[in-house]
Amino acid sequence: xxxxxxxxxxxHSLLGVIPVGLFLxxxxxxxxxxxxxxxxxxxxxxFMEHLPYLLFLEIVLIYLPILYHAIYGIYMAFTAKNNVxxxxxxxxxxxxxxxxxxxFLVIFLAWHVWETRVAMALGxxxxxxxxxxxxxxxxxxxxxxxxxxxAVFHFSNGLWSFCVHWGILVSPHSQRIGTYVVAVIFxxxxxxxxxxxxxxxx
Length: 202
Prior knowledge:
Elements: H1 2-17, H2 20-32, H3 38-49, H4 54-79, H5 90-121, H6 128-134, H7 138-165, H8 172-199
């Protein structure tokens, strides 16, 4: 049973980086085109929407991996033993925040998919105007800010865990360096995400 849990955990961490993490980077990069104006974003979004076999790619490379990652992540969140109250070590806090950000992302992503992909399937064009309309409410802006930062943190911190579970970061020294690297990734992706968000706000 323990061996099966270890294997499922490794698959969970792998899918969190490839392809889910890579999709996050691509998604933020496309959204960042909004900083160059509505036409630049619409062009980038249109390019993504006209990729060959888009629905197949979305299901196989995005929805199914995210679904597994979310379901197993919820299982881990409610079965994991958090030691923050007992020790308070930095990595224990990262462990707890990883679980909390993951739970929030389940809600955020469900809402985001409903407001964008489902709306597009029902006939609303997926363009700059759609996002600008979604972000007219200050509460929705705050919701998206938290969602973006949660996604970026979950990916960045999860990348560190992935490297540990897959034997890339083994020694304490390498793990400490890895912490600095993922912190830089968090700052850079966080900037891209928040900068893109405010590009949709008039």
